[in-house]
Amino acid sequence: MLLPQGLSYFATPMPLYMQRLRYILTALLIGAGSLTVAAQDIYIEEDPPIAEMMARFAEINQSRKLVPGWRVQILATADRSRLETVKQSFQYRYPNIPVDWVHSKPYYKLRAGAFSSKLDAMRLKFILEQDYPGIYLVKDDSIQPKELIGDY
Q1: 94 and 24 fall within a common domain
Q2: What is the pLDDT of residues 90-145, one digit of tens each?
Q3: Measured in Å, how far apart are the chain's first and last C-alpha atoms?
Q4: Could you tell me the CATH number of the domain that includes residue 73?
Q5: Order of strands across the sheet with 99-104?
């Protein structure tokens, strides 16, 4: 059904600014659609020195066996049986958070998580402080890259 110029479907006059706004929005939608079609054909050509540098960077990073990072220390005790008890309790409460212990004479240290940034480790510390008061962050320079974990 064709309507006379300036009339909407309900036969009320449409103001001039509304007509112009309708034409502008239609033009923008058509223009945005054509931009997305054109954006799909993007090709990146890298210079040979850049490609070589990126390959070398990847090779160096893959050859690293250990990375520095942060862990949350839950307990430091000389009593091995207390360490095992707290570790089992922790694993029951937080089954998705990896926990392990190290022995530095005379102490057994129970540590949770493995993070590349201190901020991520602080997030876990905040969560665990409610159940384990007195926990703190420790720097660990012997973390395997596969141990690094994400957000909680």
Answers
A1: no
A2: 999 999 999 999 999 999 999 999 999 999 999 999 999 999 999 999 999 888 88
A3: 59
A4: 3.30.70.1070
A5: 99-104, 107-115, 67-77, 136-143
Given a contact cutoff of 8 angstroms between Cβ atoms, the answer to whether 44 and 51 are in contact is: no
Count other Cβ atoms within 10 Å, centred on residue 99: 18
How many degrees, rounded to 5, is the angle at CA 145 between CA 144 and CA 151? 115
Please give the Cα distance from 69 to 89 (Å, whole number): 25
Quickly tell me which residue has 């212990």 as its tokens: 101
**Does one domain contain both 83 and 124?**
yes
Give how far Cα 78 sits from Cα of 15, 37, 91, 103, 115, Å. 84, 66, 20, 9, 26
CB–CB of 68/141 below 8 Å? yes
Domain that holds residue 6: 1-39
